[in-house]
Records
---
Amino acid sequence: MSTRARPTGRRAGGDDGSAPVVAILMTDVEPAVRLNAALEALGMATVTISPMDDVRGDLRRVRPAVLVLTGALLDTATVALVRQLLWDNVAVIGFTDVSDPQLLERLRDIGYAETWPKPVPLDDVVDSIRRRLERLRLASETGLVGESAAIREVLVKIEQIAPVTSTVLIEGESGTGKELVARAVHRLSPRRGKPFIAVNVGALPETLLESELFGHEKGAFTGAAERRLGRFELADTGTLFLDEIGEIPSATQVKLLRVLEEREVTRVGSGQSIPVDVRVVAATNRPLREHVEDGGFRADLFYRLNVLSVYLPPLRERREDIPLLVRTFVTEFSALHDREFHGISGEALELLVEYPWPGNVRELRNLVESMVVLAHGREIGADDIPRAIRERGGRRLLPVPVGPLVQGSERAQGRELEFIVRSLVELKLQVEELRRRIDLEQRPVAPAGWVQEAHPAVPMAGLTEIMPGHGYGLVRGIEPRDATPPATVITLGPGMTMAEIERVAIKAALRDTGGNRRKAADLLGIGERTLYRKLREYEGEEGLEGFLPEDEA
């Protein structure tokens, strides 16, 4: 008996503060039931859905954070569903019948977040789902997008340091999201309901900086027509974010250190100390320790700020997050500018992945907005990428050491020699890349008389990740949200009987129609009762889990 959707009444990580939901598709009933029981025993909200039901409708109603597919991972309808859920930020976990590296790679390409071979280690799967839900919660609260190890480390660090009141130093290049981290620390702390005041100290002139931070009394200086509260007083009981702290002048560094030590501020033009209860989070876009060694920043202030530290890696150090960021920004700007998204070609996405992004996430975000607006009504291709990115991102030249003769010579022969050496290196890289592509795309040929399982006509289509195994060399494009799924292909071997062909055709039709027997019968040109009888004959065969009549399942 198939199990219908059993919503728990709690939404997936809901805006209403409800618990996230784990949806389990009952294609393979035994592991699905075991997993559901284990998750419910831990108090997690779960929903079980039969493949015979309206799967998409049930998922829209319950809005899961995680979907577990227990079988038929490469069916056309399943592949289309996984692609759709990528746009909805739903993590899809799949249970495979075999542990084959090529199969696992293919599933990752489609968009599966995790795959587990059967029999699945239940405790490990449950622990993985628990940790994934925790990461999804943190990502939702922080606004940091990414699945790389670097971003996971940042999220863990934020959760660890948020509950305490110690000062925090955030280091990272411009555009990496330092203010997002500062706001996340505040939002996850006991001070979440108190003020969060952000000030870019590097943008303030030295003459006004002390007044902005500590306030001033009326008449303290020319133009001080009235008393003004400083940022420390405004942030009392809350969090003060000091951006670009490395640009603060030496005289102000001394006063800032005193405020941090004494927890008191003195307004400009006043001799009275005012107690403040403020947690300071500072950020810098250059290594502050090096600034201390250069003599541009006080060592004692550095140590006072660097009680807890967070390092935000540049985008070039987490290139695997670029497709996910692109998808996130496309969703945002398509809605903002009312522009329909028609996809990004693999060549264009590869250029984005290979570009070093000196402006980091901010630069990528601005570029995606421009592409969404200017490429309205068509797929975004390589020609839509700015020339500077195409030329810099598409070339993977290695530094080539040359002798002093070439280095010091301005003659044409020296330049020609360097050009030849660089060309040979580039040619070697291209040959290695071509060899890797051939190895990845080769598939075993079906022997005579053997029927290959039905599979999507375009395997790995819709890839939004970087192909593993070779840095970031091979990248597939991003398809639009409602892309038409590929038709199912049946591979027929020599010597097949009509009964075998009929069986494979019925399986393919059921998969294309999501298990709807009436639609499958119409597609095959047979009666529904005939199809029902055939399914009873196929009972127990692999690939028909969830498609058999309910009284025979």
---
Amino acid sequence: MGFWKNLFTGAETDTPPRDKDLSAKTLTEVSSQDRGAQIVFSTERDIDLYELEELCDAVGWARRPIRKVRKAIEHSFLVVTMWEVQGNRRRLIGFARATSDHAFNATIWDVVVHPDYQGKGFGKTLMKQLIKKLRSEDISNVTLFADPHVVDFYRNLGFMPDPEGIKGMFWYPD
């Protein structure tokens, strides 16, 4: 529960941003030793949707209509992106978004990290940035849906099945 405790108490601080292009909405920046690049986290929504589609393709997600992806991003409460920045080049390597009632609840959607960056702590940092930003907006109830193969990843971040035993319900058109 240390991960959550830090988010709720504000005990952890981030490195100040240094990237000029993303600085207005940069959350934090970390070095990537193995590539000689910087990894930059941003809340900027101006995303090349075809680059996002390539990222989703890289992890094997089914393609979704670009117009619907654009609409989902526009209507999200929060979008956090992760970029590999090397010189003047930047590459989208992570993405997550959340919807919210703007008061109590948020649901995290579409968490994706490029396979080259999985297993190195970048997904954890992406989630940490997203949750920290939600907490700064006084959102205290954060939920998500997880595919079976990533449940342990989210458990390690402090997510758990609803302690009151509430089960998600779904409605789909015929």
